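Pipeline run #58 for the internal structure catalog. This entry was flagged by the ingest filter as a single-chain record with no existing model, so it goes straight to prediction. Upstream metadata was stripped on purpose; only the residue string is passed forward. Reviewer on rotation: M.T. Logging verbosity set to normal.
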Amino acid sequence: MNQVTPQELKNWMESKKNFLLIDIREGWEREVFNIGGIHIPMGDIFSNLGDIPKDEDVVLYCEKGIRSTIAIQRMETAGYNNLYNLSGGMKAWKEAL
């Protein structure tokens, strides 16, 4: 599984790298703090696969990186090989940046 650190992701954002950012947390978590991207809660990922490209980098994030790891593992079984997990999630983002 591909991982991206908070600093690497920040660099991607600042350099305008072409990628899709997906927050898979629940709505209330996103309201408290988020770093952007589209919001698709983990429970809705599979019903929204048509909105997630297979031909560009996609970064998933959650609070600690656990739910996004699980989502990525499941998506890989559906043929995705372009996924990145934000290592440590929002917790690591807040601590690092």
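catalog note: The chain has a mean pLDDT of 96.
catalog note: The two ends are 23 Å apart (CA to CA).
status: ready for reviewer M.T.
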